[in-house]
Specification:
Number of domains: 2
Shape: globular
Strand content: 35-45%
Largest sheet: 4 strands, mixed
Distance between the termini: 22 Å
Order of helices and strands: HEEEEEEEHEEEHH
Strand order of the largest sheet: 7-4-9-8
Structural class: alpha+beta
């Protein structure tokens, strides 16, 4: 690859701006909303955004090439949507891969022998600083644990689907969870 080709690679460009003021505008039960005043160009801008802990998700694939999906109620969209096992990075100092392993165990009663990073992305960069990491898990085996599911997790439905069936559901607009869509497309394009 020539030096000119390297310059033209498609890539996001980190561009931190000078923050003049930053405060918690809303202190929430799960996330806070921050209000930042920062210098941009010749002026100043104020933006509010969800200050997120970050999260992980797991695309678990069984020996038959099927993906594990969970149906869970999500109040902001008033829908029980299909999604991947996932969770917040809300344990102080926990490694993201260890969090992914914990989430797979807690939500699906599974462990995996093989783990690899699949994709990471900002879920909604115009309104949140959430960085989500998705791991691919293979070599699945059932586990026993004493974790008790509560709230929206108490009545989760588990389902195994072939990747092509998930892709068809995405194309038809029958599933719209952003993490599920992004991870499935990343997996299918490998």
């Amino acid at each position: 690859m020539s030096a000119d080709a390297e310059i033209d690679l498609l890539a996001d460009e980190p561009s931190p701006q000078r923050v003049l003021e930053s405060e918690v505008a809303f202190d929430g039960a799960v996330w806070n909303v921050r209000r930042d005043r920062f210098v941009y160009g010749d002026g100043e801008i104020v933006r509010e955004y969800v200050a997120h802990t970050g999260a992980v998700a797991v695309l678990a694939v069984d020996e038959d090439g099927r993906m594990l999906l969970l149906k869970q109620y999500r109040h902001p969209i008033a829908t029980r949507d299909w999604e991947l096992p996932a969770g917040l990075l809300d344990v102080e100092g926990e490694d993201p891969l260890e969090a992914a392993k914990r989430e797979l165990e807690e939500e699906a009663d599974l462990a995996a022998r093989e783990w690899s990073p699949l994709i990471e992305f900002f879920t909604s960069p115009g309104g949140s600083d959430e960085l989500l990491r998705v791991y691919l898990a293979r070599g699945l085996e059932p586990v026993n644990h004493d974790f008790e599911r509560e709230g929206e997790e108490a009545d989760m439905e588990l389902r195994w689907e072939p990747v092509e069936a998930v892709l068809e559901a995405i194309r038809a607009g029958r599933v719209r969870n952003g993490i599920l869509v992004t991870a499935t497309l990343a997996f299918a394009s490998r």
